[in-house]
Structure formats: C-alpha cells, structure tokens
Amino acid sequence: MAEQPPEIRIHNFDEVACGYTAGQAMEEAKRCLLCPKSPCVGGCPVNVDIPGFIKHVADGDFRSAADIIKKSDALPAITGRVCPQECQCEGVCVLTKRYESVAIGRLERFVADWEATTGTLSSPMIQPSTGRKVAVVGSGPAGLTAAADLAQFGHQVTIFEALHEAGGVLSYGIPEFRLPKAVVKREVDYVLSLGVCLRKDFVVGSSATVDELLDEYDAVFLGTGAGLPWFLGLPGEDLGGVYSANEYLTRSNLMKAYRFPEYDTPIAIGQRVIVIGGGNTAMDAARTALRLGAEQAMIVYRRSRTELPARLEEVERAEQEGIQFHLLTSPVAFYGRDGRVEELECLKNELGEPDASGRRKPMPIEGSNFHLQADVMVIAVGQSPSPLISKTTPELVQGKGGTIKVDSASMKTSKKGVFAAGDIITGGATVILAMGQARAAAAAIDEYLKTGAW
C-alpha cells in the first residue's frame, strides 16, 4: 500500500497510508486460497466471514463484500486501519507458512472506503421494535458496536457520551494521521442511522448514576474504556511541560490543537520531546510531536526493540520519520528550572528472565545513569478505567486496576441488568477486542430482555 513519504508526512496530519485502488484490491484478494477451515475467521474477534468478503473483492463485487463485513463488523473503516491484524486474522493466514499473509485489514479498509465514496451504504435488517430500552454508556468502539447490534435486535438504544464528540478513544486517542476523524464520524453516523440516539456531554456517575439509568432503561451496557492515565511516581513529575499521553493526545486530536489558531487549544510544542513508553500510544505521541513542530522526538523504553508492544508497522513508521529510540532505558527523575521541565535522568538496563507478562524483565545496570535534555515530556505507560462509575455503583465487583468483573461468556456484571465490555473490564487493550466483547454482551442483553433470566 502506498504511503506519504516520511519527509513530507512529518509536516502534516494527513493519513499516512493511502489505501488500495480497486485494481490493487482485486489483485491482492486473488491471493486468498479460500480455505475451507478458514483459520482467519477464528483469528478475528468479531468473526468476520473473511474468505466470503475477499472472494467478492476478487470478483469486483464490492457491494456484496461490504454487506458480508457489516454483518459482523459495524466499524470496518476503523478496524481496517487500526486492528493489529498481524497477530489476529493475518497472523493465522495459511499463506504465512511460505509467503506473506493476505492483506485482510487493507482489503477491509478498501471495501469500507469504497462503500462510503460511492454513497451506497448498506442498511442491515432491523427487527421489529421490542419496546425495550437499553442505555449504552460510552461511544467508543465497545459502545458503538453494542449499540449497533442492539438496534438491529429491535431495541431502543441511547448512547450516553461524557465528551462533546462521539467516538471515545477513536476520537481523543488515535491521531488524525492514523485514523482520520472524518472516518470516525462516518462510522458513528452509520450507527446512528440504525435508530440509535446519542446524548453527548452526559457523564454517567455524575449527570446520572447507573441506578438512575436502570429506573428508565431495561438494561445498561458499560463501555467507558480506560481513560485514567498512569504516572511513574518519580521526582519532578509535576513540572510544567510533563504531560500524560491522554492529555497530550486529547488536546491534539479531540480539541484540534494541531489546527491552532483555528481551534484555540493550547499545547506545548517543544523543541525536543521525550515520550516514555513503547506501545501504540507512545508512537502516536512521538509522531504527533514531530507534526506539531518539534525539532526532535525521542522514545524512552525500558526493554529492547523485540519487546516493544506497539504494532511493528507503527514502530517502522516512527523510525522512518526520524524518531530516536532510547531502548533498554528507564526514567529515574525529571529535572527543571523555574517550574519547567528540562532534563530526564535515565538508567540503562539489561534483560533478565521473563516476568509475569512473558517478556524478559529489565534489570538496571548500576552506575549507568545519564541525562536527556527536552522541554516537553509525555508519559505513555498505560491507563485504567475511570473510578467514577465504580464509586457511584458499589454493587459492581471490581477487578485488578479498577476494572469491572464480568462473566466472560455473557459479559454480565455483578449487578442485575448491567453488562460491560472493552477496556473497562480489561484495562487498555485493542479496539477489535472491545468490539468482540461488545458483540457478546449485546447478544446476552437481547437474551436477558427476552427471558428476564439473570
């Protein structure tokens, strides 16, 4: 797939990947062996009929391909862009035994974009109204997926969104150059076209509690994600110019700081920017810093390149764009002057035995301390669910790190009538995993509303 050249794209927020032409998509689709056992389907958290849609792409029947995808995936233009296909559907493609896997994600993106540009959006069958009402809390990937499925079951669905724009992490967390917000809006509008209502600027736990929603709705789905950033607890972390990745990316993405002064959102540009962490969020923050005008952006990560949790293509794109990687490096303290950060003290590591995560544990090398200079630093080491809903709904049993415990099959919580999926039950994870859990929850909610059995 063609991409913007690195020397050009670091000066704009346009999408990096350009997408397939129709001819390229058809040629790539013809590589699919249409395996009878289809391991790729099992590798997809929402179980898209991958060989089915790819066969139609190969034949040039993009309309039928879109119809097949939409049966399982309400947000294909998004999942085609941000899913980690390499460790899901493409990772189990039988062609990988000798060749490259079929580019399933790119084909999905092509079909979704084709449908949008031709103006021939498919409309799924909506079951007759059941008269039952469901409140969906959060309009991120989990909430949108659950809402779409529940609407098709014939239930009246209202999404409650705390922010002023829908999309959750799709809007505030993932940069424009990786997921254009016009694409997010397009997919949100599709879900609303199914008859779903959307109430923005409504903070469940403050504007209304879960119990108050249950007074009006027959069931409640919680899909509020993980928006509470983790910090390091190091000296100097409260200096000016030190951001959480959540704040840094929200200012740029949702509040459009990158289009200042058209949007009056302040953000520290920084000549030298350090991002601490090695996941997709860290790559997003470092690449955003360059586009905002930084002369240099650096990643500080405590393990080696092999253990980086970010997608390989995002790491490679960051390297192409000139991001500097300080690997096997841990932060020790932040230093500044007049209340502003200026330096990060670091320590070199070596890798020991695997820890609970299965990755080799970083072990500090005594006396290896060194300093990096920067005027903006971004902490991107993870996040947890907001405690607001748990604090205002004490009957919800909590899991590790402020998550909510659910039955893994039905996604039922400990409170009758309340279901949950996505990062609120897993902590920070992937878009497609949240969507797969949300589909399971929607089916369980439908069953609960039909039978009343809990």
Could you provide a short overview of the structure?
The protein has 17 helices and 16 strands. With 454 residues, it is of the alpha/beta class.
Describe what you observe in this structure:
Helix content is 34%, strand content 17%. The protein is α/β, with parallel strands linked by helices and 454 residues long. It folds into three domains: 6-118, Alpha-helical ferredoxin (Fumarate Reductase Iron-sulfur Protein, Chain B, domain 2), CATH 1.10.1060.10; 133-227 and 384-451, FAD/NAD(P)-binding domain, CATH 3.50.50.60; 231-381, FAD/NAD(P)-binding domain (3-Layer(bba) Sandwich). The chain has a five-stranded parallel sheet with strand order 3-2-1-4-16, sandwiched between helices. Strands 6-14-7-8-9 form a five-stranded parallel sheet. Strands 10, 11, 12 and 13 form a four-stranded antiparallel sheet that branches. The chain is globular and about 65 Å long.
